[in-house]
């Protein structure tokens, strides 16, 4: 499994538009990407406009297909006008474990 943590920041005066763009990207991803196991956004309670996207993918090929998909390219480009700074994206190979 591939896990992605994408840290994102919106411009303060464009926060609502950024949230809407994230919702649209989430909806298009869940509707179109068969290898997506999870795709969630959360906003910081201590830093308004700071978000994290946590994604889970079946494998690297599924993640790459998502990154290459027209809906992802368009959604990401739409968010660019509202970003405060570049995303910090961290990608991990992971296996679930039981405690």
Automatic annotation (TrEMBL):
Signal peptide: none annotated. Residues 2-92 form the ABM domain. SUPFAM superfamilies: Dimeric alpha+beta barrel. It comes from the Bacteria. PROSITE patterns: ABM. Pfam families: ABM (PF03992). This is ABM domain-containing protein. It comes from Glycomyces endophyticus.
């Amino acid at each position: 499994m591939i896990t992605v943590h994408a840290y994102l920041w919106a411009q303060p005066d464009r926060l609502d538009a950024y949230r809407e763009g994230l919702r649209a990207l989430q909806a298009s991803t869940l509707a179109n990407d068969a290898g997506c196991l999870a795709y969630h956004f959360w906003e910081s309670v201590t830093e308004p406009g700071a978000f994290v996207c946590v994604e889970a993918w079946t494998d690297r090929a599924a993640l790459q297909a998502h990154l290459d998909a027209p809906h992802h390219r368009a959604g990401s480009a739409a968010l660019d006008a509202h970003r405060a700074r570049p995303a910090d994206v961290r990608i991990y190979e992971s296996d679930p474990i039981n405690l």
